[in-house]
């Protein structure tokens, strides 16, 4: 697959040359510079495997062997979906959320949650079963659906709905808050996630700074221990 390369680096290089052309001693060679600009604009970009995420991603223990190195793997990606995928899916988005939760990248996983919320045709309860054969990763993926549902239901509790526009006038917001709870569109955890067995031993997930909780009774621990994963309560609520 070939796609036209219109990237920041090209824009920066083009702008730099234009600046030199208009201010430097060689400003008379404008036609040659324009030809170089045209070549850059028409350059063909050939993606490589590193430009795509791999599904499934590694288990938590592999990611956490060297978090900065794995973060660099994420950062060099140019596409959100694996090679060969024609469109994004809620299951692929769940894998992205999983990676960010394991790395404790707060801003990134909040953005991921908000992007998921904006996908109106992605109910949390309908995320396809990844049927993962690695128990730890499967438990983490299941746990991420609990975080999704909890995050979204906090917004539903405020009277918000995934079909609502991003901006509302005060009268619309007030009407939304007055919708009876039984008529609101609450999110659910998918059945496969409920069926995933909790881990036999407690898996303690470190923070980005490497801190570990020592007890499930720690007030900083996430209250949902359905899959026996102990982590700091993530910042999953967004406005």
Radius of gyration: 23 Å
Low-confidence stretches: 1-23
Oligomer: single chain
Order of strands in the sheet with most strands = 1-2
The count of β-strands is 4
Tally of helical runs? 9
Strand content: under 5%
Which of globular, elongated, flat, extended, rod-shaped describes the shape? globular
Largest sheet: 2 strands, antiparallel
Distance between the termini: 38 Å
Query: What structural class results from the helix and strand content?
Result: mainly alpha
Mean pLDDT: 84
Helix content: 40-55%
What is the N-to-C order of secondary-structure elements (H for helix, E for strand)? EHHEHHHHHHHEE
Supply the key terms:
239 residues, two-stranded antiparallel sheet, 4 strands, disordered N terminus, DNA-binding protein
Structure commentary:
This protein has a two-stranded antiparallel sheet with strand order 1-2. It has helices at residues 8-23, 30-41, 60-63, 67-75, 90-103, 106-118, 135-157, 170-177, 191-195; strands at residues 3-4, 44-45, 203-204, 229-230. Residues 1-23 have low confidence and may be disordered. It is mainly alpha-helical and 239 residues long. Residues 19-40 are annotated as: Disordered. This is DNA-binding protein. It comes from Apiospora saccharicola.
């Amino acid at each position: 697959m070939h796609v036209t390369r219109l990237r920041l680096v090209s824009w920066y290089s083009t702008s730099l040359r234009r600046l030199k052309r208009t201010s430097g001693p060689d400003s008379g060679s404008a036609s040659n510079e324009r030809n170089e600009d045209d070549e850059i604009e028409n350059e063909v970009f050939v993606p490589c495997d590193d430009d795509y995420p791999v599904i499934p991603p590694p288990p938590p223990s592999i990611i956490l062997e060297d978090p900065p190195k794995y973060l660099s793997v994420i950062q060099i990606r140019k596409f959100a979906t694996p090679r060969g995928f024609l469109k994004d899916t809620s299951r692929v988005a769940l894998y992205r959320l999983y990676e960010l939760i394991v790395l404790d990248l707060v801003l990134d996983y909040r953005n991921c949650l908000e992007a998921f919320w904006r996908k109106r045709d992605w109910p949390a309860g309908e995320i396809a079963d990844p049927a993962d054969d690695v128990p730890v990763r499967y438990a983490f993926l299941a746990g991420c659906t609990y975080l999704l549902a909890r995050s979204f239901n906090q917004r539903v509790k405020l009277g918000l709905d995934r079909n609502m526009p991003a901006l509302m006038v005060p009268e619309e917001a007030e009407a939304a808050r007055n919708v009876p709870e039984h008529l609101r569109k609450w999110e659910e955890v998918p059945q496969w996630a409920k069926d995933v067995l909790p881990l036999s031993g407690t898996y303690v997930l470190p923070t980005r700074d490497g801190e570990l909780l020592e007890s499930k009774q720690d007030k900083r621990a996430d209250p949902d221990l359905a899959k026996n994963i102990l982590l700091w309560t993530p910042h999953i609520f967004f406005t």
